[in-house]
Amino acid sequence: MTAKDTPEVAHATTLDTSGLVCPLPVYKAALALKAMESGQILELICTDRGSLADIPALARRRGDRVVETDDRGDVQVFWIEKG
To answer: Rounded to two decimals, what is the model's pTM?
Structure first.
């Protein structure tokens, strides 16, 4: 994927959980979102394929919204808007 293929979503915070496996990406994302203001967007970088199911589930449970997901194969990037 080239840089111009990468979604451009304005975000307040980036959290890189590369190398971590469940439940750590979910736990760290929840902590980061808790510290943010409503309407701010968290860019979350994961390498755990389970995140493709786990992160949207986290957002639904918290009342947040996954704005966009970019599955790059070995890396998944999520943009989550705090509800």
So the answer is: 0.87
